[in-house]
Request: fold
Amino acid sequence: MGVIGLAFRYVLFHWGRSALLVGCLTIIAYLPLAISWLTQTFQSQLSSRASSTPLLIGKKGSRFDLTMNALYFEGRAIDLIPQKEFERVEETGLARAIPLSIKHRARGAPIVGTTLDYFEFRKLKVTAGAMIGRLGDCLLGHNVARRLGLSPGDGLLSDPDNVFDIASSYPLKMRVAGILHRSFTPDDDAIFVDVKTAWVIDGIGHGHDDVAKADPSLLLEKGEKKVVASAAITSYTEITDDNINTFHFHGDPANFPLTAIIAVPHDEKSGTLLAGKYLSADERMQILRPTTVVGELLGMIFRVKRFFDLQSGFLAVATLLLLGLVMTLSARLRAREMETLFKIGCARGTISLLHLAEWLIIASASAILVGVLLALTLSFAPQLMRAVLF
Amino acid sequence: MIRFDDVRFRYGRDGFSLHVPNLVINNGERVAIVGPSGCGKTTLLHLMAGIRLPIAGRINVDETEVSRLSDSARRRFRISSIGLVFQEFELLDYLTVQENILLPFRIHPSLHWSKEVVERAISLAESVGLSDKKTRPIQRLSQGERQRVAICRALVTKPRYILADEPTGNLDPSLKNHILDILFDVANRESATLVMVTHDHSLLSQFDRVLPLDECTSKPVEGARSQ
Reply:
C-alpha cells in the first residue's frame, strides 16, 4: 500500500464526504450526458419511424397529433375518418393503403386495428404463435407480451371506454394469436388486431344469441323482416369458433371509423400525385409526409434543448467551482497532516500525488457510477422516452 | 554527533531569528532543550532534522553536512537518520496502529517494504505495550497509547537520532514519566541519541544534559551547557 493505498484508506474512512463528492460529480456528469443521449435516441427513434412511413392521411387538424397517433400510437385523440377514405386511396391506384384504427387500449397498451399489410410494411414477424387468423385474434408487441406475461392462446380483455356508461360497448376478450419479434419501435408496445375486430370493440359489430330462437320475452318487436331484441339478450364478449358466425356489423361499412391511413405510394411521382389530390380548399382530409412533421417537431425540441444545455453548462460550472472550494478547504483542513508527512520525509510531490490520487479515486467512482447509470438509461431509453414525452 | 557551528536562522526577512554559535550533542546522549515559549526550541529541532535550513553557519550530523544537502537528500537523510515525535502525536486517523507505525515505508521510495519491516513494527508495538491493539483505529486509543504509536513510528526506520518535540506536553501527569521511560528505553535499545524539547522541569533530572534557550529570540544560545 503506497500513496494510492493511503488515498484509498482516506477515501474509505471519510466515506460520507466521499459519497457526497461522488454524488455531486456523478450528477454533473450524468445529467447532461443522459439528456444528450436520450434526445439523440428520441431523435433517431422519431426520425427512423417517420422516414419509414411515406405518407399519412387523416382528418384535417393538428399535423403533430395525427403523426403521433398514426406513428407512435400516442398523443391526443383526433377526429376519425370514414372507411371510404381508405377506398379513395386504393382507387387512385397510386399507393397501397393501410388502415389504422387506434381508439382503444387493453391493460394500458394501445390496440391498433389494421390489416395484414401493416405487418408486411413494417417488416414485423411473429416469433411465437401465429398471425391473426380470425376476428377476435390479436398479436402482441414484444414489450406488451413481456410486461403482461401473456403467450399465444391466452386471453386479453380490452379496457372499457367508460365504466359508468352501461350503454357503451362491452370490453372484448381477445385471443392472443401470436407475439411479434422485437423491433425497438412503438410496435413493441402495441396490441394489433384486425381492423374489423377494432370495430367490434367500437361496438359497431357484435355477436349475440340468435334472436329467431330467443325467448319471446327478450324481444321488443318481431316482424317478418325486422326483429328488435331487448338489451337482456346475451351479447358475446369473446369471439370463439362457436359464436364467430353470429358476429355482424351494423351500418354502412363506408362510414366505419378509422384513425388514419398509411399510404405507401408505388414511387415518388405517385406520392406527389396522391398528395396533390388533397390540396383543394374544400378538402376535409390532410395528407402529410411524417418526415417533414417530425423534422419540425425535432426543430422545436432542439431549440428548447439548447436552452437546457446552456443551463446545464452554468450548473456544471457552479458545481465545479463549489467542488474546487471543497478541495481547497479540504487541503487547508489537512495542512497539518501534510506537514507531518513532509517532516517525516515525504516529498511535496508525493503529498500532491496523495491529494491527486484521492480525487482520482472519487472521480473514478463517479465515472463508474455514471457508466452504470448511462447503461441503465440506454437500456430503458425507449420506455423512458415514451413515458416522459407521451 | 550533532554539531552546530555559528548557525543563524530567520523566518522571512524580519521574522523570528535564532543564533546558535556552538552546539555539540554526542552520540547516545539524552539531551533536553528547555526555554520559554517562542524562544526557538522547535526551530532548533527542525534545523537538526533538516526540515529548515540556516541562513548561515554549518550543521553537521555525523559526517553529513545537513545544511548543504539538496531537498531530496535532506528528505532521504531525515527518513533514514531521524525519528520525529510530536507533541500532538500527528497520527493519521484513517490508519490503524500498525499502519501508522509503518507510514514512513509508504511515503518514501527509498524505504523498501519487507516482511522484516512488518515484524519490526509488530515488535516495536509489543515493546510499548500495544501488542493487542495493532489493528485498532487510532481514534479508539487513549492519549498515552497514541503517543506510544508515534514513538514506534519514529523508530521503525532505525534512526540514529530521536528528536522529540514536547512529547509529554499533551499527556496526563501520570503518563508523562511512563512515556519518557519508554522513550529512554527504546533509545537505549536502538542506541539512538535522544533530543527532547520540554517545558516540564520535573523531567529534566532524567536527562544527561539540559540545553536552555534564551528568552529573547534574537540572542544566541550560549553554547552547550551542562546543568
